[in-house]
Design a protein that fits this description.
Blueprint (H helix, E strand, L loop, with lengths): L12 H8 L2 H10 L5 E2 H8 L4 H14 L2 E6 L2 E6 L1 H7 L3 H19 L9
Antiparallel strand pairs: 1-3, 2-3
């Protein structure tokens, strides 16, 4: 199965922002930001997601918005981040979003009590 991906000039900011507005999709993009190609199963494992059917929808949204490349390889699909295309189209956008997500994680880690902690 060949997937359809938008050309670089067809990537629209509203589609990218909508795709990255989902915490699950944003987490998947953060995994893919490490570079290279990742098979779907390895990304699911990192995310702690077991429902492949749910992720199929998320992959489609990310692919259709131009955020990821997805290609079949045997019985698996390989995923990679379209960082170069996104940076060319919207310089700094993806980096700012990923940095903001990382900063939000740090704030949550500091402000939320640890599991089992006793609050006063």
């Amino acid at each position: 199965m060949a997937y359809r991906h938008p050309e670089r000039d067809q990537i629209r900011i509203e589609d990218v922002l909508a795709a990255l507005g989902s915490p699950v999709r944003l987490a998947a993009v953060r995994v893919l930001d490490g570079g290279g190609e990742h098979n779907c199963t390895s990304v699911l494992a990192v995310l702690g997601v077991t429902a492949k059917s749910t992720m199929t929808h998320h992959w489609r949204v990310l692919r259709d918005s131009g955020v990821i490349w997805q290609r079949p390889s045997g019985r698996e699909n390989l995923l990679s981040l379209r960082r170069e295309d996104l940076d060319a189209r919207y310089p700094g956008l993806l980096g700012a979003i990923l940095h903001g997500a990382q900063s939000d994680d740090a704030v949550r880690a500091v402000s939320e009590p640890a599991a089992g902690a006793i609050s006063a």
